[in-house]
Amino acid sequence: MSFNDSNLSICKLLTSTEICENPQFIVGGASRTDICQGDLGDCWLLAAIACLTLNEKLLYRVVPQDQSYSEGYGGIFHFQFWRYGDWVDVVIDDRIPTFNNQLVFTKSAERNEFWSALLEKAYAKLHGSYEALKGGNTTEAMEDFTGGVTEFYEMKEAPKELYKIMKKALERGSMMGCSIDVMVVSIVTWSGVCVSPLCKQSQHKASKVRLVRLRNPWGQVEWNGPWSDNSKEWVSLSKGEKDQLQHQSAEDGEFWMSFEDFKKNYTKIEICNLTPDALEDDKIHKWTVSVNEGRWVRGCSAGGCRNYPDTFWTNPQFRLCLLEEDDDSEDNEVACSFVVSLMQKNRRKERKLGANLFTIGFAIYEVSMHGNKQHMQKDFFLFNSSKARCKSYINLREVTQRFRLSPGEYVIIPSTYEPHQEGEFILRDLNTEGFSLECCRSMIALVDMDGTGRLSLQEFRHLWNKIKQWQGIFRHYSSDQAGIINSYEMRNAINDAGFRLNNQLYDIITMRYANEGMNIDFDSFISCLVRLEAMFRAFQAFDQDGTIRLSVLEVSC
């Protein structure tokens, strides 16, 4: 029976207790075997749920654990989804479509387990109906489960730094999936494979080999080429190297392969960059995310793409300030990495009303950091070309792309391809974590000589040069470029910055700026040096003979 079959009209909505005896919400923990596709064409959703089972913290954010068919059972369950910038709680009853007492849609291999079927029902309610779930993209569901921003790469068009992008993404707790479009020798096509959190370089026969660990969430099928579980390549590695790579020979759906084979055998990779509200581990290098809501209004702000110069400038405009240079010791280019995501709202839910996805995209223009913040006018776009733009306008729910641009201020212009098309959207940009508000205020106070609370171009350049100098010192002492320095290294770092302190002051600095692990992050490091710079400068202003005497008013300043 297919979803559109007339037999569907005779389906019965039965509660879990009517379907079987002793129903359970989750049996023995959630796993991929709990997700068996039914007669609804939503394999894209089920692939996302399967990947979600590999991360318990994320899973139980979507599927709260405080639910069962015994204690406190009232016939209802609730699930949480990310919805355009907010987390929403969706409450459903436990009546599920059945035919001949069998579940019609998603079911578990265990007949009395219902969490996956109920999750599918809640997701259908979020979008208005089961029918709305027919056809989709796995990345769409992953974002609704995590609030993340997803980017994808076609392997044949992947950037040369893809391995570095993957490695950095895993350091930030991102989730990844890869897929194959056609059958390939020695490997079986499946809907999705998750990239496990390990990208390593191994020393093999006097040369470095880049490796990727993958996991098939659907079963036991594995890669059997070079670097597979029992391949000859592992013989050349020591036990210590094998332990470091967590190598084990087992038909568990998890396997290693070289990055080169990975690129040859897979068609596409999707990276779901998780935002801070989805990450709880302080050790993870998190993105910072800015969320902007907007709408295109016909006759006012629905200007279409750059091909329509008379109206393009009327589109909504959003400012982006890039100051945090990439922390990459192997790259000498002064540039900032960031990801821009443009998502149109509610189009799947309104599809039954005839609403189709618009063809959308965006462009990025550089503007003066010290100019006014007003809406850029038509002439600006006639005489200035974009610094970056999305690869193409496309009729998907979301268009996402990664960029690297020089530090500065930019304006992002989201638009539909054609003008006069009305709709709502959210625009998100992710970039590496910037300075805290306290640190920013301290930096401005350090160089703001005229006390206006604003920086002139000369003052900004002076501050920027200081930050660059201190960043170089921080990188030198940062352990494995992990974005932290050990508190024991702080003495040497401060000395390199030109400050000579006594032991008591070093103790105070450690107590003030080190975390529980006795480590100091970049924000705290800069805050410390800014305060030291300000104190030394104040002392020198009053110093006549190596000692100073201050009034109460001067101390308060």
Summarize the structure in words.
There is one protein chain. The chain is an alpha+beta fold and 557 residues long. The chain folds into 4 domains: 6-144, no CATH class; 150-273, Cysteine proteinases (Cathepsin B, Chain A, Alpha-Beta Complex); 286-432, Sandwich (Jelly Rolls); 437-556, EF-hand (Recoverin, domain 1). Helix content is 27%, strand content 25%. The protein is built from 16 helices and 21 strands. The protein is globular and about 95 Å long.
Summary, kept brief:
With 557 residues, this protein is α+β, with helices and mostly antiparallel strands. The protein has 16 helices and 21 strands. A six-stranded antiparallel β-sheet has the order 6-11-7-8-9-10. A four-stranded antiparallel β-sheet has the order 12-19-14-17, with no helix packed on it. The protein has a four-stranded antiparallel β-sheet with strand order 13-18-15-16, with no helix packed on it.
